[in-house]
Amino acid sequence: MATDSSPAGSAPAASSGGKHEFLVLLVDKEGMLEKRMSVRPSHLEDIKPAVDAGHWTFGGAMLAEPFTPSADNQTPQIQGSVMLAQADTAEEVRVRLEQDIYAKEGIWDMEKVKIIPVRFVSSFL
């Protein structure tokens, strides 16, 4: 699994809670949309405690193109997930990802995951 890290000699800046922020990009393996949608309710239910604990700040589907639901099409073309994690290390984030049903069911391509140290501002100046 690929994990992006800070340049040598530097560390990501810690957020106000003392943890570091990591942007997580996960692509789905080919042909996994139907399987993803079938386990999605479990994914959403299982992730709630980690969200409540502040481990995941936000997350959602990564789309192939912008999507507007219509009477003919209610399912976007999902190609993966994007999340913002709060953790001490990228390894801690990876361990949490591996516990998710999308990883266990082989939906996410864990060989291509990117865990990128970031620091977001709450608003632009």
Comma- or semicolon-separated keywords:
single chain; alpha+beta; 4 strands; four-stranded antiparallel β-sheet; disordered N terminus; 3 helices; 125 residues; globular
Q: Could you tell me the radius of gyration in angstroms?
A: 15 Å
The counted number of beta strands is 4
Q: Please write the string of helix (H) and strand (E) elements.
A: EHEEHHE
> What is the distance, rounded to the nearest whole angstrom, between the alpha carbons of the first and last residues?
36 Å
Strand-pairing-aware structural class: alpha+beta
Instruction: Summarize the biggest pleated sheet.
Output: 4 strands, antiparallel
Q: What count of helical segments does DSSP give? A: 3
Mean pLDDT: 87
Helix content: 25-40%
The best one-word shape is globular
Q: Residue ranges: pLDDT <50 for 5 or more in a row? A: 1-13
- Which strands sit side by side, in order, in the main sheet? 2-3-1-4
How much of the sequence is in beta strands?
Answer: 15-25%
